[in-house]
TrEMBL record:
Role: Catalyzes the reversible formation of acyl-phosphate (acyl-PO(4)) from acyl-[acyl-carrier-protein] (acyl-ACP). This enzyme utilizes acyl-ACP as fatty acyl donor, but not acyl-CoA.
Similarity field: Belongs to the PlsX family.
Protein name: Phosphate acyltransferase
Molecular-function annotations in GO: phosphate:acyl-[acyl carrier protein] acyltransferase activity
Keywords: Acyltransferase, Cytoplasm, Lipid biosynthesis, Lipid metabolism, Phospholipid biosynthesis, Phospholipid metabolism, Transferase
Organism: Marinicrinis lubricantis
Any Pfam family hit: FA_synthesis
InterPro entries: FA_synthesis, Phospholipid_synth_PlsX-like
E.C. numbers: 2.3.1.274
Signal peptide extent: none
UniProt subunit comment: Homodimer. Probably interacts with PlsY.
Pathway the protein acts in: Lipid metabolism; phospholipid metabolism
Length: 329
C-alpha cells in the first residue's frame, strides 16, 4: 500500500504533517508513506533519517488556503496537493491525504484523479462524533452546495458501502437529514430524494433530525453540502463554546478549581468523544482513487489517524466496492 500525504497542506504544515507520518510509519510498517512537498522544508522537521517505509517526493509549490481552487489546481502544476493527486492518477500511490484547501482537493480529485464511472458528484464524508463513540458518517458536508435527489441517492449508497466495508457494520442505518421525521416533510428535493433512497438496496430508516445526531439515530446521514456544512460548523461552534464556558466556570474560585480536579477525568473523556482528530480524515467518496481530507488544523495525531483510515479503506477495497455497486456489477 502506497499513500501520498500532502506535507504542505494545512495550518500546521509541514511540521505536524511530518510528525504524524513518522508516527504512522512506525505503527504501519506494511505501508509505504510518501511525503509530498518541499524537500528542504520537510527535512528541516526531521531529527533523524527517514524510516525505510517513508520517502519524499519533491514539490516546489503549495496551494494556499485563500487560493481559488480550480485556478490553483490548473496553474500550480508543481503544488504538493496536485503532485499527490497525480501520483494516485498514475498508479504510483493508491491513496492521498491532505489537510489543505478543501475546494482545491475537490478540484484535484475531479480534474486529475477523476470520478468513479456513474457518480455525478463526489461527496465529502466526515465522521460526526456521537456519545457512544461509534460516530455518524455524514455526506455531503461541503463538497457540493446544491444537490439533486439523484445525488443524494448516490451519497446514501456510497455512505452505506463505506460503513459496511471500512467500519464492519453489517446493516448500516441510513437517514436523510430533514426538519421532521415524517416522510413528506421538507422541501421538494428532500421529498424526491426520500422516494429514491427508499427504493435503494440499503437499510434506509427515513428522515432524521439534526438534534438526534449525537445520539446516533443513524449510521449514515445524507444531506446536501450547504445544509451539512452549516450543521457541522454549528456543532463545532457549540462544542467550543461549551468547553470554553466550562473552563471559565471551573477556574473562577478555589472551590471550583478543586471541583474541576475531581471532574477532570470524566470531562477529558467527554472532550475526546467530540475530538475530530480521533477520526482522522474525511473521505471524498466518488473519486476514482482513495482521497482523504484532514481538518485544516490537523495535528500529528489527526494525520496518523488519517493514515490508519486510508490503510483500512484500501484493505477493504472501498473504491472498488463503490464502483461495482454503482455500475451494478
Amino acid at each position: 500500500m502506497r499513500i501520498a500525504i500532502d506535507a504542505m497542506g494545512g495550518d500546521l504544515a509541514p511540521k505536524e504533517i511530518v510528525a504524524g507520518v513518522l508516527a504512522a510509519a512506525s505503527q504501519y510498517s506494511d505501508a509505504e508513506l510518501i511525503l509530498v512537498g518541499h524537500e528542504a522544508q520537510i527535512r528541516s522537521c526531521l531529527s533523524s533519517e527517514l524510516p525505510v517505509n517513508v520517502r519524499i517526493v519533491h514539490a516546489e509549490d503549495r496551494i494556499l488556503a485563500d487560493d481559488e481552487p480550480v485556478r490553483a489546481v490548473r496553474r500550480k502544476k508543481d503544488a504538493s496537493m496536485v503532485v499527490a493527486a497525480r501520483l494516485v492518477k498514475e498508479g504510483q500511490a493508491e491513496a492521498m491525504i491532505s489537510a489543505g484547501n478543501t475546494g482545491a482537493l475537490m478540484a484535484a480529485g475531479l480534474l486529475i484523479i477523476g470520478r468513479i464511472p456513474g457518480i455525478e458528484r463526489p461527496a465529502l464524508a466526515p465522521m460526526l462524533p456521537t456519545m457512544d463513540g461509534a460516530g455518524v458518517l455524514a455526506l455531503d458536508l461541503g463538497a457540493n452546495m446544491d444537490a439533486a435527489p439523484e445525488h443524494l441517492l448516490q451519497y446514501a449508497v456510497m455512505g452505506s458501502i463505506y460503513r459496511s466495508k471500512v467500519d464492519g457494520m453489517e446493516k448500516p442505518r441510513v437517514g436523510l437529514l430533514n426538519v421532521g421525521t415524517e416522510a413528506m416533510k421538507g422541501n421538494e428535493v428532500s421529498k424526491a430524494a426520500y422516494a429514491l433512497i427508499e427504493q435503494a438496496p440499503i437499510h434506509f430508516v427515513g428522515n432524521v433530525e439534526a438534534r438526534d445526531v449525537f445520539a446516533r439515530n443513524c449510521d449514515v446521514l445524507v444531506c446536501d453540502g450547504f445544509v451539512g456544512n452549516v450543521m457541522l460548523k454549528t456543532m463545532e461552534g457549540t462544542a467550543s463554546t461549551i468547553f470554553g464556558a466550562l473552563k471559565q466556570e471551573f477556574t473562577r474560585t478555589t472551590f471550583t478549581k478543586l471541583a474541576a480536579a475531581v471532574l477532570k477525568p470524566g470531562l477529558s473523556r467527554f472532550k475526546k468523544k467530540l475530538d475530530y482528530t480521533e477520526h482522522g480524515a474525511a473521505p471524498l467518496l466518488g473519486i476514482n482513487g482513495l482521497c482523504l481530507k484532514s481538518h485544516g488544523s490537523s495535528d500529528a495525531n489527526a494525520i496518523k489517524n488519517g493514515v490508519r483510515q486510508a490503510i483500512h479503506a484500501l484493505k477493504n477495497n472501498l473504491v472498488g466496492s463503490i464502483a461495482a455497486e454503482i455500475s451494478g456489477k
